[in-house]
Amino acid sequence: MNDAVLTKVRALLAKAESTEFPAEAETFTAKAIELIAKHGIDEASLAAAGKRSDVVGYMEVAMESPYSVERSTLLEVVAKAMRCRSVSKGTGPTVGHCIVVGYESDLKRVHLLYSSLLLQAMSQVLRQRPPEDRHVSVTTYRKSWFVGFAIAIRDRFREMEREMVQGTGCEPVGRSTELVLRDRVAMVDDAFNDLFPDADCRTIHARSRAGHSSGYDTGQRADMGYSRIGSQKAALEAGQRGT
Question: Strand 97-103's sheet: what is its strand order?
Answer without folding.
Answer: 56-62, 97-103, 85-89
